[in-house]
Amino acid sequence: MTEEFRYEEVDPEAAYAANRANWDDRVPLHLEHYGLAAFEDPAHLSTVVAQDAPVLERFAGPLTGQSLVHLQCHIGTDSVSLARRGASVIGVDFSARAVAAATELARAAGADARFVQASVYDAAAAVGGQVDVVYTSIGTIGWLDDLEAWAREIHALLRPGGVFYFRDSHPFALTFDPDQPERLTPRFRYFRGPEAERWDDSTTYAGPGEVNHSVTYEWSHPISETVNALIGAGLRLEFMDEGRSIPWEIFPGMPRDAAGDYVLEGDAAASLPLTLTLVARRPE
After folding, report:
1. Among the four residues 28, 108, 113, 140, which has the most C-beta atoms within 10 Å?
2. Domain Methyltransferase type, which positions (predicted)?
């Protein structure tokens, strides 16, 4: 791997601006490499939603007829997939280019999904009403510095009795060095510190091509921080799961399972969780 990494104290607003510039740059590359032609099939769902929806619907019920906000929706592949499960979807993303791309994807797919540009921290005001479900999955909270503010927005977005669904990379898996895939070697912090992770990497996970704005900032969030933020905001935790597969290649050379996700082999498969799933509800 060629990216440069260090821990660095940074103003959150400056980090936010750097991250947004980077994600704006990713949009044309992801439009090319996300396999959007598959959405011409009206039955097609993203692999993320194909896995998430059955778990979500155990708690929220069938999505048909329900209102749903998708936070950090990027170019809308998961949003359109949720709409195909029957939800009326509002996607929220901080990238204007991503919102424009998601809007066009939904139009072409004939999906009941619309999109607004806003920070996660301003999502409730941007949406302008309460919904049945708030959804966020894969590659999300690492870009956020303040999970208490995040959780308050989720609470504000949900109607009483509404359900929040979350799945993302397991924070323990993210502590290991991807440059040493042959052995699990700790490299990154599990617990939150005063500094952000500063990355300088012009590539993108989706395929060939480079971005112009290569510097990004991320924050580590242990499970306790995520859970306590949701509880502190007034949500009631109803489900937690730690998964053994993940939609992106967290370590080079990982094989794929039948669903197309990446998995570990040997002793590592039984030792290292790759995803964390949480379901919470706003009390009636």
Report:
1. 113
2. 70-164
